[in-house]
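Lab notes, practical 5.
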Amino acid sequence: MTNGKTVVVGLSGGVDSAVSALLLKRQGWNVVGLFMKNWEDDDSDEYCSSRQDLIDVMSVADRIGIDVEVVNFAKEYKERVFAEFLKEYQAGRTPNPDVLCNSEIKFRAFLDHALALGADRIATGHYAGVREFNGEFQLLKAEDGTKDQSYFLHRLNQQQLAKTLFPLADLYKRDVRKMALEAELHVAVKKDSTGICFIGERPFKEFLMRYLPPKKGEIRELDSGRVLGEHDGLTYHTIGQRKGLHIGGVKDGRGAASGEHDAWYVAKKDMAANVLYVVQGHDHPALFADALSADQLSWVSGRAPHTHWVYTAKTRYRQADAPCEVERIDAQSCRINFAEAQWAVTPGQSLVLYESKVCLGGGIIA
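Output from the prediction step:
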C-alpha cells in the first residue's frame, strides 16, 4: 500500500458496495476490500445474514480481482453504538443506530483501521456525495433522491469527509444493478438489507425484551383520559406507532367501533407514570408539531448555521424536505420552527438540516 492511490472499500455483501469497489478499480485505484463484523451476540443464520454476506463479499472480490480483509469491530460497536441504543430506549426515546454506526464505526473505527494500513482514502456504497468547496468539504445529497442516505451521515466531520469517497453519488439504483449484472457480479439481484443490522429480520419488540424487561402499564386515550388497555413497556413503543397496540376493537368517543379509517396512534409517553397515551386518526392534532428542540448537535463544517435563515429539514429518513427556520442555536441545542406542522416528531430521532443539496448536519430531537 505505498503507491499513494490506495482506497479501502467497506464491503457489506450487497450490490451497492460491490459496484463501488468495481468503479474505483476501473478508475485506477489500488482497491482493498474490508468486511466489518459488528455483531456477534447471537449471530445465527436465522436472523443475522453476516455469514452469507461474507461469502458474497469473497465472491465479489474474486470477480473484481481485489484482496479482502475481515475485521471484527464487535467490541467497539457494543460500546459506542449498542450501549447508547439501549440507554436511549430505556429513557423513552427512539434512537437511530444507523446514524451512530456511521459516525462511530464506519467513519471512525473503519477509517482509523484503513489509515493504519496505509490507505489514502476509504469508500462506502452509501448514496451520498462529497465535494471540496472554498477550502472545506461538503456532504451532498445523492443524485437518486429515493435512495439518498445523507440523513444517516450528517454527523460526519471535515476530517472524515476529507478521506472519504462515495462512488455512487451520481448514480441511480437501477444503473447500479445494471452495472453489477454487466460485470457478472452475482449480488446484482440480491435483495437490499432492511432494518437495523444487529436485529436483522427478527421482531423488534422480541429483540428489545431480551435487554429491557417488560414493565406493564395503562394505555389511555389522550383526549378523555379513559383506560383503553395495557402495554408491556413504554420502551417498546414510539410516537406515531399504529401497529401492536392491541386496542383495535375499542369504540371511539362517538360510540363507533374503531375501524381502518380511525386507527389508534401513539401520541405521548409519560415515563414517570408509565402511561402510554394514544389518539384516534392519523391526522389528530396531537400527532403534529410546528417546532422542536434538538441537542447533541453536530455540524459538517464545524460551524453552526445562521439563525433566522430558511433551510429544509428531515425529522425522519423517509420524509420529504420540510421548509424551516432556525430560531435559536448555541453549542448545546437549537430550536427549529417549521412552515407546516410535522407528523410524529419523535424524541431520539435525528433532525437533519439542509441548504439545497448540502447537508449541514443536525442533532437529536429532544
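Observations recorded by the TA: The radius of gyration is 22 Å. Residues 78 and 140 are 29 Å apart (CA to CA).
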